[in-house]
Automatic annotation (TrEMBL):
It catalyses: Hydrolysis of terminal, non-reducing beta-D-glucosyl residues with release of beta-D-glucose. It comes from Deinococcus sonorensis. One of its GO terms (molecular function) is hydrolase activity. The keyword Hydrolase applies. Residues 30-215, 253-379 form the Glycoside hydrolase family 3 N-terminal domain. Residues 416-598 form the Glycoside hydrolase family 3 C-terminal domain. SUPFAM superfamilies: (Trans)glycosidases (SSF51445), Beta-D-glucan exohydrolase, C-terminal domain (SSF52279). It is an enzyme of class 3 (hydrolase). Belongs to the glycosyl hydrolase 3 family. InterPro entries: Cellulose_Degrad_GH3 (IPR051915), GH (IPR017853), Glyco_hydro_3_AS (IPR019800), Glyco_hydro_3_C (IPR002772), Glyco_hydro_3_C_sf (IPR036881), Glyco_hydro_3_N (IPR001764), Glyco_hydro_3_N_sf (IPR036962). This is beta-glucosidase. The keyword S-adenosyl-L-methionine does not apply. Pfam families: Glyco_hydro_3 (PF00933), Glyco_hydro_3_C (PF01915). Keywords: Glycosidase, Hydrolase, Signal.
Length: 613
């Protein structure tokens, strides 16, 4: 078994006083209260009074788990309701609320939406990521939330995977560096403060190394839409997505050997632990045929033993149910493997009673329960939750504030990767006439992508922001000079044209695609504009490289913009030359669909990017 270079185990999370506090509290807790702390239901499932009655440790919002109306005020009211109810439990143990703030407080309408990780990797700027972490933390804390299921430290090997955009890079060191910067941003001055947010480093481990076709998440024979997939609101188009490859890779099996797992996928966790991370989320995926949620060697012996992780491991959404067909067996195997808190979105009472019975039957030891509860309580203490008065320390008007949007705009500028620029096509002249084509040019939803307001994301004005087109018009000398043709149909020629094409928003396995080729509609748009433009620049909004080899020769310039988020004016800043192109390619860009994984003959390699400043 190849060992990871020895590191000092993570230093104890608490000083002796804190450790004594936790031990004394643990000694007063009943088995049910300890199991309650290990339980995390989704906010729509929790019956009034159950947080106090069951001493629930946490509640979460899944993707799109928003209050109605989806406003900062209603978010704060919802979250504080759960936190205040926890104070009414017998021991008043504080509750921690968790959300996926993976590119800003992205479920919340009006929050600042930052570029997804794939773009931040291109920016390659730890200080920028740290500042984004801090701004995200403040908007999250304003709504009473103190736990963010981020950063993902995925290192995508096969970009057909629908979560590729959650990875910063295909380079392990870059992922580790940026993840630590984000963790430091969420921490702020100190974990023990009222404006720190607990990160979840995810998804442990090698979530991005699954083999295409190995996922069993969707039973193609059954094809019923289970409750989680139904929440994704893609029910009516589910079959088409399956035909395109959905759920072929995500949550599948990784066949890599242990040396590769340790060399490529483990180091970001080691770095995150050294940076003080106190929560890790287990991956749905399997390694060599064994589900990570039931993988005692990796969860306990490696993560908690070898790497010395002192925090707690949370399962993914219904993740333990994939360990074994029998629920009780799943509970026993996953808790014994090292899962400390279980994200059981729906039947939380069933989980509690099943685990209680398993402990009473001796199938899960009391020591394992104590270890899990101790880890959870220690993290809550380290975050200062026991002293917190539940009144958020950040005013609601910081949500989506101008300062954070300016930071997001700065980030957008640094994410843009210039891959072709001939004949002086770029920078565009802000004083000249410009044709902008493609509906994606005026679509904040398309530039935000998945995990935005809803789990899958969507089109149009999904949240307040600035579209690329609006940004271009605001920056042009004369806005009327910026002509917009969503379908590219124009009756005259233009000296300069910008065509914006975008992937359809997606999240997780819904975004798995067997082909990354441009669509017929995109090719037709490009052809129409090419015929009417002397110089044509193409800008791609996508969660991963797309196959553009055939079309690229007819383009004068090509920009990969990834998923920039709400502040599209950052794109205009660079296209008009106010700021240089500085983005770096962190993903190998395949030449064809036949050569997608570690392409032998890629179209672009990291380092092929053109920089202009
Ligand atoms: C999802 C994702 C995970 C997320 C969790 C809660 O299925 O796998 O990244 O944090 O559920 O939304």
């Amino acid at each position: 078994m190849t060992q990871t270079p020895p590191i000092a185990p993570q230093r104890p999370l608490l000083d002796p006083d804190g450790q004594q506090f936790v031990e004394q509290l643990l000694a007063r807790m009943t088995l049910d209260e300890k199991i309650g702390q290990m339980t995390q239901p989704e906010k729509n499932s929790v019956k009034p009074g159950d947080v106090a009655r069951l001493a629930l440790g946490s509640v979460l919002s899944g993707g799109g788990g928003n209050p109605d109306p989806n406003t900062p005020e209603h978010w704060r009211e919802m979250v504080l309701g759960f936190r205040r109810e926890a104070r009414q439990s017998r021991l008043g143990i504080p509750l921690i609320y968790g959300v996926d703030a993976v590119h800003g407080h992205n479920n919340l309408h009006g929050a600042t939406i930052f570029p997804h990780n794939i773009g931040l990797g291109a920016a390659r700027n730890p200080d920028l990521v740290r500042r984004i972490g801090r701004a995200t933390a403040r908007e999250v804390v304003a709504t009473g939330v103190r736990w963010d299921f981020a950063p993902a430290v995925s290192i995508p090997q096969d970009i057909r995977w629908g979560r590729s955009y959650e990875g910063y890079s295909q380079n392990t060191e870059v992922v580790a560096e940026l993840a630590c910067a984000y963790i430091e941003g969420l921490r702020g001055e100190a974990w023990h403060s009222r404006v720190s947010v607990l990160p979840s480093v995810k998804h442990f481990v090698a979530d991005a190394a699954t083999t295409w076709g190995s996922s069993t998440r969707v039973d193609r024979q059954q094809l019923e839409l289970d409750r989680t997939l139904a929440i994704s609101q893609v029910g009516e188009q589910f079959m088409q997505l399956l035909d395109l490859g959905a759920w072929q890779s995500d949550q599948g099996n990784s066949e890599i050997d242990e040396a590769t797992l340790r060399r490529v996928h483990l180091p970001p966790y080691q770095a995150a632990i050294e940076a003080g991370a106190m929560n890790v989320m287990a991956s749905y995926s399997s390694w060599q045929g064994l589900k990570m949620h039931g993988h005692r060697y990796l969860l306990t012996e490696v993560l908690k033993g070898e790497l010395g992780f002192q925090g707690f491991v949370v399962s993914d959404w219904e993740g333990i149910q994939q360990v074994h067909p029998d629920f009780r067996e799943s509970v026993v195997r996953s808790v014994n493997a090292g899962i400390d808190m279980v994200m059981v979105p729906f039947d939380y009472e069933g989980f509690i009673s099943t685990l209680r019975e398993a402990v009473e039957a001796g199938d899960v030891s009391a020591e394992r329960i104590d270890d899990a509860a101790r880890r959870i309580l220690s993290v809550k203490y380290a975050l200062g939750l026991f002293e917190d008065d539940d009144e958020p320390a950040v005013p609601l008007d910081e949500v989506g504030c101008a300062e954070h949007r300016e930071l997001a705009r700065e980030a957008v500028r640094q994410t843009l990767v210039l891959l072709k620029n001939e004949g002086g096509a770029l920078p565009l002249d802000p004083g000249a006439e410009l044709l902008v084509a493609g509906a994606a040019a005026d679509d904040v939803g398309a530039q935000c992508g998945g995990w935005t307001i809803s789990w899958m994301g969507g089109h149009g004005d999904v949240t307040p922001g600035t579209s690329l087109l609006a940004g271009l018009r605001a920056a042009a000398s004369d806005p009327a000079q910026v002509h917009y043709a969503p379908d590219g149909r124009v009756d005259r020629r233009y000296r300069s044209a910008l065509v914006v094409i975008a992937e359809e928003p997606y999240a997780e396995g819904m975004g798995d695609r067997s082909s990354l080729a441009l669509t017929e509609e995109q090719r037709a748009l490009l052809t129409r504009v090419r015929a009417q433009a002397e110089q044509m620049t193409v800008l791609l909004l996508s969660g991963r490289p797309n196959i553009v080899s055939e079309e690229l020769p007819s383009w004068d310039a090509f920009v990969a913009a990834w998923l920039p988020g709400s502040e599209g004016q950052g794109v205009a800043d660079v296209l008009f030359g106010q700021f240089p192109f500085s983005g770096r390619l962190e993903y190998t860009w395949p030449r064809s669909n036949d050569d997608l994984v570690a392409p032998a003959d890629p179209l672009f390699r990291p380092g092929d990017e053109l920089t202009t400043g």
